[in-house]
Design goal:
Number of strands: 9
CATH topology: TIM Barrel
CATH superfamily: Aldolase class I
Distance between the termini: 33 Å
CATH class: Alpha Beta
Strand order of the largest sheet: 2-1-9-8-7-6-5-4-3
Oligomer: single chain
Largest sheet: 9 strands, parallel
Strand content: 5-15%
Structural class: alpha/beta
Helix content: 40-55%
CATH architecture: Alpha-Beta Barrel
């Protein structure tokens, strides 16, 4: 990837919708993904093959993935928690997956009811299967800058988990500030600590905007060399296991900032703003600041 090119990973259809308080029709999820596919995004995370009781909003994963109009130039990764989820994802044609754990023991116990070590053991057969099938794997690491249960998370713990995922075969590791407490200096320092062990081109950043720091954090991490950024259209999101955490940073805001920094994402901001306006209206959620500003002047 060139120095001025940023890959934006759109997580709205999965991470953005999993915390909504009511059931979202499958048809709306499919339409959201198809609309996002028309904005220039190259990665749209489609859904999650977790158990329905755990995340009821994503219980229709097979139907969603089977009905979207997949484009050859776009990746549609899906989250899987174990081999059962992997089998379900592969049965409907998923070609890229993501696994997840946390840097906080307390968060992992609350989120997936196991220790970090146990979560890595669960992933081992998934990663083995993925290698056999030549399926790309992304690893998510939550709570890298703070945990709602234990508070501060030692940087050494984050590095250790990231190293384990990288050594296990994850092609990309996303560093997630799940509760949005990090600031720019902290975010950059953490990224650089992880990058001392793992090549920067295998890392991504994923910021929630609880304290309004997400864009500053992303800018600081881009200056440090990261070239992959997660975001969610209209800032949708939250975390079912992190009380008080607000949504992800809005993709519209990220793209506007990237354009201003002279960095290429390939995303058409106006078209993205239209998608954000539509889904925010459907869900009764506020629009992103950039989306509002752009559509107001057209």
């Amino acid at each position: 990837m060139s120095e001025d090119r940023i890959k934006v990973v759109e997580v709205g259809p999965r991470d953005g919708l999993q915390n909504e308080p009511y059931t979202i029709p499958t048809s709306m999820k499919v339409e959201l993904i198809d609309r996002l596919s028309g904005t220039g995004l190259k990665v749209v995370e489609a859904t999650s093959f977790v158990s329905a009781p755990a995340i009821p909003q994503l219980a229709d994963a097979e139907a969603v993935f089977g009905e979207i109009t997949r484009r050859d130039d776009i990746s549609y990764p899906v989250l899987v928690p174990n081999t059962k989820g992997y089998d379900r994802a592969r049965a409907v044609g998923a070609e890229e997956i993501a696994v997840f754990t946390a840097a906080s023991e307390a968060f992992n116990q609350q989120n997936i009811n196991c220790s970090i070590a146990e979560s890595l053991e669960r992933f081992a057969p998934v990663l083995a299967r993925a290698r056999e099938d030549k399926v790309r794997v992304r690893g998510y690491v939550s709570t890298v800058l703070g945990c709602p249960y234990q508070g501060k998370v030692p940087v050494a713990d984050v590095v250790k988990v990231c190293e384990a995922l990288y050594e296990a075969g994850c092609a990309e590791i996303s560093l997630g500030d799940t509760i949005g407490v990090g600031t720019a200096r902290q975010a950059r320092s953490l990224l650089e600590s992880v990058a001392a062990s793992i090549p920067m081109d295998h890392l991504a950043v994923h910021f929630h905007d609880t304290y309004g720091q997400a864009l500053a954090n992303i800018a600081a991490c881009i200056e440090a060399g990261v070239r992959v950024v997660d975001s969610s259209v209209a800032g949708l999101g939250g975390c079912p296991y992190a009380r008080g955490a607000t949504g992800n940073v809005a993709t519209e805001d990220v793209v506007y900032m990237l354009d201003g920094m002279g960095l290429r994402s390939g995303i058409e901001l106006f078209e993205l703003a239209r998608v954000g306006d539509w889904i925010a209206g459907e869900l009764g959620r506020p629009r992103s600041r950039t989306g509002q500003a752009i559509l107001k002047h057209t």
